[in-house]
Write a structure and sequence with these properties.
The chain has about 325 residues and is of the alpha+beta class. The protein has three domains: about 5-70, Arc Repressor Mutant, subunit A; about 75-225, no CATH class; about 230-330, Endonuclease, Chain A. About 45% of the residues lie in helices and about 15% in strands. It contains 14 helices and twelve strands. Strands 9-10-11-12 form a four-stranded mixed β-sheet. A three-stranded antiparallel β-sheet has the order 1-3-2. A hairpin with a 2-residue loop joins β7 (about 155) and β8.
């Protein structure tokens, strides 16, 4: 028992050193990386047998504790699988499409990402991307594309190589339903990306599915949307004849700041709030919101609220409430 305990302690210490010298920012490592740092193959295999390290596929390893987390967190699992695929490619590859959007923290469409897409530079190997893939290195659900990445500002997020934020937004939007596509583009604008940056990367991805529709989606993107609900609400209301609103408009009275609202239609004198009352759970929140609403009403505006369910399942009814409120004010 004493020998086994000492052996386990030695393996735990080896894992600690491996973490410091090899793993670093990238959670998935190759056995060749471990060997280059002085960790023998038998030692790595011992770490696997002791369940301190998990082998994702041939040559690609991760700490077992993180792999256990991934079994409960699909986002973590996707990143580990993508990383395991990337480390097996001599010329490198980058997260692309919805996977890249998720890595950059952009909002996703329901059920996305499905297939995990990676892209590598056309200049790295002009033969078909799958032609050199060894069966033992392939990972189910990971798809490799080849594109001309000349000029692409690639980066790395939590150790996973990924295309730029602008390219992530564009290539994800190309695959999303229209409202969710605009939501991703709005979020990129909120992160400091300019619409011209989005437009500039479109030609690079022209071979991708859905890219031809992206310029029209970029035209719909706006600075000011603070959530997918706000982006989706704006598009669904525009589609039903509601005018373009001002976003995050600030109201003031003689005493100063009153409120910043999600939507403002100045010609209708209507404020739109895309949250319903779901976020007002404490009595203090309800009272504060009632006071805020009273101050806005004193300025001669009408407030219309809606929830996720209403704007998604009954958008025409929400649009009618806004337009009717505007007509009543005009009357």
């Amino acid at each position: 028992m004493g020998h086994q305990r000492r052996h386990q302690e030695e393996l735990t210490e080896a894992l600690h050193e491996l973490r410091l010298q090899v793993i670093g920012d990238s959670p998935v490592f190759r056995i060749a990386q471990a060997e280059a740092a002085g960790f023998s193959r038998p030692l790595v295999r011992s770490l696997v047998r002791s369940k301190l390290v998990y082998r994702i596929r041939h040559g690609a390893y991760v700490e077992s504790a993180l792999w256990d987390v991934a079994q409960r967190d699909p986002a973590v699992l996707r990143r580990l699988l993508a990383s395991a695929a990337v480390v097996g490619m001599a010329n490198g590859a980058f997260a692309y499409g919805p996977l890249a959007a998720e890595v950059h923290g952009l909002p996703l469409a329901p059920g996305s990402p499905g297939q995990l897409e990676l892209v590598r530079d056309l200049g790295a190997d002009r033969r078909p991307a799958r032609s050199r893939g060894k069966p033992r290195n392939l990972i189910q659900g990971v798809h490799l594309l080849t594109r001309d990445l000349h000029g692409e500002d690639t980066t790395s997020v939590n150790g996973l190589p990924v295309v730029s934020l602008a390219s992530a937004a564009v290539t994800a939007a190309a695959q999303f339903p229209r409202e969710y596509a605009v939501s991703a583009l709005d979020a990129a604008l909120a992160r400091g990306i300019d619409s011209t940056d989005l437009t500039a990367v479109v030609p690079r991805w022209r071979a991708g599915r859905g890219i031809s529709a992206v310029p029209g989606l970029i035209d719909l993107a706006r600075v000011g949307a603070e959530s997918p609900l706000e982006s989706i609400s704006r598009i669904r209301l525009l589609d039903r004849g509601v005018p373009e609103p001002e976003l995050q408009h600030e109201f003031r009275d003689g005493r100063g700041f009153v409120a910043r609202v999600d939507f403002w239609w100045p010609r209708l004198r209507v404020v739109g709030e895309a949250d319903g009352m779901s976020k007002y759970t404490a009595i203090q929140d309800v009272r504060a919101e009632k006071h805020r609403q009273d101050l806005l009403s004193a300025l001669g505006v009408t407030i219309v609220r809606w929830t996720w369910d209403e704007i998604w399942n009954h958008p025409t009814a929400v649009a009618r409430r806004i337009l009717v409120a505007g007509r009543e004010w005009a009357a």
